[in-house]
Amino acid sequence: MSFEFVQKLPTPAEIKDMFPLPARLAAIKAERDREIQKIFTGESDKFLVIIGPCSADNEDAVLDYTTRLAKVQEKVADRLLLIPRVYTNKPRTNGLGYKGMLHQPDPEKQPSVSEGLHAIRHLHMKVLDETGFSTADEMLYPENVSYLNDIMSYIAVGARSVENQQHRLVSSGCDVPVGMKNPTSGDLSVMLNAVVAAQTGHEFIMREWEVKTHGNPLTHTILRGAVSKHGQCLPNYHYEDLILLYRLYQERDVKNRACIVDANHSNSNKQYMEQVRIVKEVLHSRRHSDQIREMVKGVMIESYIEPGSQKVGEHCYGKSITDPCLGWEDSERLLYEIAEGLE
């Protein structure tokens, strides 16, 4: 075989034994899970904002960012529930570039998945401990969810993973909301089929075990825009797109018909400042339509301390080394405007 087996990695149980979650933090996470669940079931009318860096590339900067976010959360707690993006697995369109903290705890050093497993659990747990925020991350590798499932309160399945069988099956066993993004083609039926699959129980193979799941009723959709065959970005956050998704939901027998709108990626053509306008348009659509208000439970925003992006090695503190992000000043202002715009 053309594989070089570097080393055997610790199992999720072994990593959790090395870095156990204290009971105090487990209680905080459980309460957060209940709050978030109520938003998806309609028991709470709070609005979700899943916000943070495109990739969590530096522990100090991520903790600085989430500490700032926690101060905002205190002021908007009656209307918004913030979930920090602590994305430690980074999919790459062409397979090149920084693949996230799981692969490279230090972006300027050689990859080490063994060190990465320690680093990502340490970071997620430290965010929970220092800010009270349970976190969001992407399900890039379905078998790895168990390394962080006792800390995360939100999971996203990306546009290139949403049609994958294992992602759908593992999502069916998660106890927290899982957002299924539309594929890069924009085909909404692929995304909705993923929701149906994940809301259904299954039996399958996971980490050398035959496992059984009972379905995840909190699985929902994420609109992130699409790319045409000519490489042009096609947004899908407009009023007409949201009404179409609502109607397609009505045709399917799923629970908790919910949607999150991703304001970046192909919706903004990665023009990070456009996220401000896009979020405001989504809020306007919610105010205009009771159907959209019922379905759209929140937005996803890529945001960091410094605006834009940089190359690895440029050493601008708190600036993304992957996709460009909204800076902190604009992000803070936008969060307050979201809270006001819910009236």
Task: Describe the fold and architecture.
The chain contains ten helices and twelve strands. With 343 residues, it is α/β, with parallel strands linked by helices. The strands form three sheets. It has an eight-stranded parallel β-sheet. Strands 6-7 form a two-stranded antiparallel sheet. A two-stranded antiparallel ribbon has the order 9-10. It is globular and about 55 Å long. The mean pLDDT is 96. It has a single domain (12-341), classed as Aldolase class I (TIM Barrel, Alpha-Beta Barrel). The protein has helices at 12-18, 23-41, 59-76, 113-131, 165-171, 188-198, 239-250, 274-288, 290-295, 328-341, and strands spanning 47-52, 80-84, 135-138, 152-157, 178-181, 203-206, 209-212, 220-223, 226-227, 233-234, 259-262, 296-302. 37% of the residues lie in helices and 15% in strands.
Write out key terms for the chains shown.
about 350 residues; alpha/beta; TIM Barrel; eight-stranded parallel sheet; two-stranded antiparallel ribbon; about 35% helix; about 15% strand
Number of helices: 10
Remind me, CATH topology? TIM Barrel
Given the helix and strand composition, which structural class is it?
alpha/beta
Instruction: Enumerate the spans where pLDDT stays under 50 for 5 or more consecutive residues.
Output: none
Task: Please state the second-level CATH architecture.
Answer: Alpha-Beta Barrel
- Tell me what portion of residues adopts beta-strand conformation: 15-25%
H/E element sequence: HHEHEHEEHEHEEEEEHEHHEH
Kindly provide the radius of gyration, computed on alpha-carbon positions and rounded to a whole number of angstroms.
Answer: 19 Å
Main sheet record: 8 strands, parallel
